[in-house]
Amino acid sequence: MSSICKRLHQFVHQLPAAGWPFKPDQLPRNGVYFFSERGETWGHGGDLLRIVRVGTHREGNFRSRMADHFIFNERKMILGPDKAAPKDRSIFRKNIGRALLNRAADPYLAVWEMDFTTRHSRETNGSRRDLRKELEVETEVTRILRERFTFRWVEVEGEHLRMGTAGLEAAFIGTLAGCSHCIPSPDWLGLSSPKPKIVQSGLWLEQYLQAPPLTEESLDGLEGLIGGKVWSA
Description:
Strand order of the largest sheet: 1-4-2-3
Distance between the termini: 26 Å
Helix content: 25-40%
Largest sheet: 4 strands, antiparallel
Order of helices and strands: HEEEHHHHHEEHHHHE
Number of domains: 2
Strand content: 5-15%
Shape: globular
């Protein structure tokens, strides 16, 4: 598993990369993305940044997923009692906020956990929201994402190839989670998460941690994509 994880990192670090600020129209419409985080290095020697999150999306939504994470449109940060906060559109943002609130032993974590995307949820629990507090946390999450994280991607056409237990996303995550060498630094924010799977895996993820990993053969195929080729059915 260690050798495959090493090859996966080497493959990913040859892919196109972006960090804030970037232009949405420079991104593909479909793919699998890999986040690295400043201060987090892989465990295979040297100072290559460790992959800390893998993600994908519904067909055609790569750019909108990045918008959900980084907030392209600052109007999304204008909160109101009839609107869901950005963390309810991005589990990545929600997980970073969870870690911040848990580290501070802040009781607002219980409200942060709630999903206010539905009208029923807003009507039932909306009175518990502190919009000023939410804005404070959301602003810090945005700052952390923009200052600490970069991402790379491989274009993958075909939702069935990207998503689900048999998709590339799951295989990538299973490979990273199964590597005993790539562990978080002592200062990694994720260690303050209230989610045991994040703490134990060293990844900003809870799904697919036990998924079957990549094989040497599948990695051979991925490495053939470097140079602008697109994985497709």
